[in-house]
Amino acid sequence: MEVVIHPSSQYLAGLAADAVEQLLRSKPDAVLGLATGSSPLAVYDELVRRHTESGLSFARARGFLLDEYVGLPADHPEGYRNVIERELVSRVDFAPGSVQAPAGGAEDLIAACAAYERSMADAGGVDLQILGIGTDGHVAFNEPGSSLASRTRVKTLTEQTRQDNARFFAGDVEAVPRHVLTQGLGTIMGARHLVLVATGRAKAEAVHQLVEGPVSALWPATVLQHHPHVTVLLDEGAASRLQLADYYRQTWSHKPAWQGL
Length: 261
Ligand code: GLP
Hints:
By secondary structure, the protein is of the alpha/beta class. Helix content is 32%, strand content 15%.
């Protein structure tokens, strides 16, 4: 796990965008794992800038979202399919239909989860997965108690997550769905490179557990410690509880340029 700490979220977004750009330039039909939430927004803005200013193309790429609310109307602006359309897909040159989300409006949710897993496998798996982290240590919507080997399935949100996400629903926690479809931790672990972005002190404990805690379903993100290629991009607030922060800083500042992310 590589930990990068930097005060500028713009700098961190640039690093994540570098990883995506490098991948797309060497493998134009790459499969991207896309996250919603506020953490990746600066990354998407940077990718849009590179698309507009230096021709970075997504025309042959495909994308898979991590998760989706169950039961929101298809045109609800906070449905993750619509969020990613607004924040990234419509601003670059993805081909129509090349970005998929779990079907949170499906009648048969179990079949929808299985179909989503099949689509990901048929696409050859995810090359690079962008991730955020919840204050309770969830990734995607894998709440505490999630099986570390889980696949795409229905989950129930914790009250903490519903409160955290109420800001997207005009502050009304009751408007936040209780149920979601989410890639499992086992699904996410199948991506070849994981790039997690976290900013702000509210994430400090979850980040400490993710990087330095014992691997446990209580802090689902800790399963990432078993992944061979994880990049964790943190601002000072999110890094503020890291025990080995000085070591991570030294490592980054002396990293040979040829190594890349
Ligand atoms: C949400 C999403 C996650 C996201 C996390 C943190 O509920 N399902 O994919 O990483 O919570 O969100 P934010 O980046 O807005 O803090």
